[in-house]
């Protein structure tokens, strides 16, 4: 059933889009862990052990590269902007789902590391490719958010002063010298789709929430913060023959995934009770 749903989603997305440069449809799903925090957000506790579904379109021809220097004194890193389009995240809870959609103000960054250093291990090197979104500016209303609350289904969701401040989905590969990691060989216009489809990488997802208001970066960092993370996840990378589907189409598909997941969980729970 899950494979069938994923296949139908990809077909629907491809059919909804006009011809454009090569793009890749990336889906990520798994279970969530509420990370420890010195200043936690209690409402996030409801998502412990619950599932999530995220989807993104990776643009094969991003617009701008910005170098960001060595990592741990080694290698190189940088951002390709315009590489991530139409991002959407759905978090499921016992009573329903809450979804977030990528805003137009988000630059769509992919963060890349080639042969970076690893803290505490001078002989270890790391390659990394990751979707990276976060607050980089402020306006009269406070932080300009990379992802906006989109919809809640069946329950009240999160309080209005809780927001998704940062999102990361990354793959990494670590090696000890003299062997260097092979996930990346350089940062100059790599084939993102081919990189994402390489086996043997360690996937990681983090959703960083904050609570309150802020008018600058210092105030933002002082707010209560807590993350939902996942390493027990799966992802798919599918070439798209066309462009980017409308966010409304994505939302309906995500809600469909949630309804299917809820039905399967209930069916499993009934089976466990009988056993």
UniProtKB/TrEMBL annotation:
Residues 244-267 form the Ice-binding protein C-terminal domain. Residues 1-21 form the signal peptide. Keywords: Signal. The keyword Signal applies. The keyword Repeat does not apply. Pfam families: PEP-CTERM (PF07589). NCBIfam families: PEP_CTERM, PEPxxWA-CTERM. This is Ice-binding protein C-terminal domain-containing protein. It comes from Sandarakinorhabdus cyanobacteriorum.
